[in-house]
Amino acid sequence: MNDSRDISPAVGTQSGPPTSKRPALPFIKAHGTRNDFVVLVDPEAELECPPQLVRAMCDRRAGVGADGLIRVARAGALERAGVIPQRPTGCGKATWFMDYRNADGSVAQMCGNGVRVFAHVLVAEGLIPAAEGVEPFSVGTRAGAKRVVLHRADARDAVVSVDMGAPHLLGPATARWNGQQLRGLGVDMGNPHLAVVLEDHDAHSLAQLPVPLPVEGDPEVFPEGLNLELLTPLAGGRAHMRVHERGVGETESCGTGTVAAAVAALAHRGRRVGNVAVSVPGGEVQVSVTEDGSTLTGPSQIVFRGSFPLLDANSVT
């Protein structure tokens, strides 16, 4: 589905409006380079988001289907509700905070594509005036406050830049995948990545690799698991990437992963800074790496709105 519209009857419900015996939860379905999300607008953090609800909504066969779930809430409200232990540096009580969950229900610190979608939803839902979007503003995440700029945004499409912060290099690291030992560059972007440059691959051969296979990282470097990026060498300012995300499996894009991939692609060419176009199965993003930070620029699209039956969600474990 490629247009933004309401869905009726609601996803997973019978025809007709929800009754008191079958409450339904409004949601927005959106994606950034086909890294897709279920978005819940919950300014005062009044909703419960247990893992079984997240898994049910993200289920691609029995639910809405998504790589993860984003709750839009005020940082102060999430703090009062005990969802976050304290507000990160740079987050006031009124700061909009991205409460992000992986498709398996686990909590994630950061999602670059998710931040783009989050900022787009803020404007599309009237939570911030559209005029504010042209100036940088802060979005809270578990990895800290992120500065974002909406270059353009309407009810369906947006182009958003996110200040991703300075990549923290973990150094050379390894992982077991597809029966082989992969060697790459460990990068912490608020979540752990291993970016592996495959010298003998181009875009065509990269597309043939069995990326969905399980990944096992070095537990000393990645004690909480990792996100694996496989990429082609940098050529003409561009690298092609596929990604296996922790708690999800292969996705068509990963924002923090594209930054990690850009860092690794530059390092492979003996460079620390530069601009890289990163092509992923879901599209293309632009990554700028400087001496003291990184910026991710790419699209966001709101696909549709609907409602999800809570009884079905609560029955899923």
UniProtKB/TrEMBL annotation:
<dbReference type="InterPro" id="IPR001653">
    <property type="entry name" value="DAP_epimerase_DapF"/>
</dbReference>
<protein>
    <recommendedName>
        <fullName>Diaminopimelate epimerase</fullName>
        <ecNumber>5.1.1.7</ecNumber>
    </recommendedName>
</protein>
<dbReference type="GO" id="GO:0008837">
    <property type="term" value="F:diaminopimelate epimerase activity"/>
</dbReference>
<feature type="binding site">
    <location>
        <begin position="112"/>
        <end position="113"/>
    </location>
    <ligand>
        <name>substrate</name>
    </ligand>
</feature>
<feature type="binding site">
    <location>
        <position position="102"/>
    </location>
    <ligand>
        <name>substrate</name>
    </ligand>
</feature>
<feature type="site" description="Could be important to modulate the pK values of the two catalytic cysteine residues">
    <location>
        <position position="193"/>
    </location>
</feature>
<dbReference type="GO" id="GO:0009089">
    <property type="term" value="P:lysine biosynthetic process via diaminopimelate"/>
</dbReference>
<feature type="active site" description="Proton donor">
    <location>
        <position position="111"/>
    </location>
</feature>
<keyword id="KW-0963">Cytoplasm</keyword>
<comment type="subunit">
    <text>Homodimer.</text>
</comment>
<comment type="function">
    <text>Catalyzes the stereoinversion of LL-2,6-diaminopimelate (L,L-DAP) to meso-diaminopimelate (meso-DAP), a precursor of L-lysine and an essential component of the bacterial peptidoglycan.</text>
</comment>
<feature type="binding site">
    <location>
        <begin position="255"/>
        <end position="256"/>
    </location>
    <ligand>
        <name>substrate</name>
    </ligand>
</feature>
<feature type="binding site">
    <location>
        <begin position="245"/>
        <end position="246"/>
    </location>
    <ligand>
        <name>substrate</name>
    </ligand>
</feature>
<feature type="region of interest" description="Disordered">
    <location>
        <begin position="1"/>
        <end position="24"/>
    </location>
</feature>
<feature type="binding site">
    <location>
        <position position="35"/>
    </location>
    <ligand>
        <name>substrate</name>
    </ligand>
</feature>
<feature type="binding site">
    <location>
        <position position="191"/>
    </location>
    <ligand>
        <name>substrate</name>
    </ligand>
</feature>
<comment type="similarity">
    <text>Belongs to the diaminopimelate epimerase family.</text>
</comment>
<keyword id="KW-0028">Amino-acid biosynthesis</keyword>
<dbReference type="Pfam" id="PF01678">
    <property type="entry name" value="DAP_epimerase"/>
</dbReference>
<feature type="site" description="Could be important to modulate the pK values of the two catalytic cysteine residues">
    <location>
        <position position="245"/>
    </location>
</feature>
<feature type="binding site">
    <location>
        <position position="227"/>
    </location>
    <ligand>
        <name>substrate</name>
    </ligand>
</feature>
<feature type="active site">
    <location>
        <position position="111"/>
    </location>
</feature>
<feature type="active site" description="Proton acceptor">
    <location>
        <position position="254"/>
    </location>
</feature>
<keyword id="KW-0413">Isomerase</keyword>
<dbReference type="InterPro" id="IPR018510">
    <property type="entry name" value="DAP_epimerase_AS"/>
</dbReference>
<keyword id="KW-0457">Lysine biosynthesis</keyword>
<dbReference type="GO" id="GO:0005829">
    <property type="term" value="C:cytosol"/>
</dbReference>
<comment type="pathway">
    <text>Amino-acid biosynthesis; L-lysine biosynthesis via DAP pathway; DL-2,6-diaminopimelate from LL-2,6-diaminopimelate: step 1/1.</text>
</comment>
